[in-house]
Amino acid sequence: MADHNALPLVILAEQFAKLPGIGMKTAQRLAYYVMSMSESDVQAFADAILQAKHRVHNCAICQNLTEQEVCPICGDDRRDHSIICVVESPKDVTAFERTGEYNGTYHVLHGLISPLDGVSPDDLEIRSLLARLQSEPVTEVIMATNPTVEGEATAMYIARLLKPMGVKVSRLAFGLPIGGILEYADEVTLYKALENRNEI
Amino acid sequence: MADHNALPLVILAEQFAKLPGIGMKTAQRLAYYVMSMSESDVQAFADAILQAKHRVHNCAICQNLTEQEVCPICGDDRRDHSIICVVESPKDVTAFERTGEYNGTYHVLHGLISPLDGVSPDDLEIRSLLARLQSEPVTEVIMATNPTVEGEATAMYIARLLKPMGVKVSRLAFGLPIGGILEYADEVTLYKALENRNEI
Known about the structure:
Chains A, B: This is Recombination protein RecR. The structure is a homodimer of 200-residue chains. Chain A has 200 residues and is α/β, with parallel strands linked by helices.
């Protein structure tokens, strides 16, 4: 924004521009839009940002984002705690829950192994997954990372760690288009991929 | 977001989805992104929103958004205060300032006359424009609203009010493509439109 603009507006536009997929032009439009919102709506927006950051943290068991000590899925006795579906990020949990067909638990890695980006296995929630296998009666671990180079490598790495522990390790069926993004798969494709999972 | 998600995350996604051009899917991605931001970055983001709303208001003279009582353009003695460029919104001021070719002042209407949307002339900053003509030595008013139905109607309405006051009223040259949006015009087109303005 040019220097005739009010500084708080320029700062707000710069903040919006930091968000993924939001360029400077869109950021400016959003900043102007905030100016047209009511006082209480603006307060609610700012509160929502702070509350989400302050009140939400990782589940002590599956590492998914939650407000409680243990997330609703891990705390649900009706779910099958002998199956763990390992995913890259919390939004993948949302994608599987949308199918309505999976009744096991999850484990969120919060990333994928990617040496080029400096992400090593130690940066992911792998140790907490191994700990679960020792404390819970787990019979199967489903590797549900994206069908990309990093997703495949991470699935293989974890599978090799788990095999000696005597647990069945399976991989999502490749009904998913290779190179695609799990989050955008439709419910039926995702359910088929889950149903046809193969042992690695 | 499904009900297994933490409530503060759902609330934040709903807040993002209220912004123009941001759908529920993008809103969810942004909410997850906020979770991955550092504590201080999140605080800075929330502060920027509140500060913009609290510290920025309309200039007492031209009604453009500013932090001060009078905006930097209205308060600049080197600018030509005998010419007023009337625009729909603050972002149009930014567009003209980018040309670097206009040295007069502005007047921001904060909307266009649109009976279908229930916007009447009384809802716009037209009264404050008429007041300026009485207190400032204005010789020309340039109607620089968008070349759309509402923009044309608003320009014509204001021109008819101003003519009896003995001031020259001009309209941007139609170098601008009809039906287009002023904000997205390139600098040269906008400068040409300004240069070839015609008396209405």
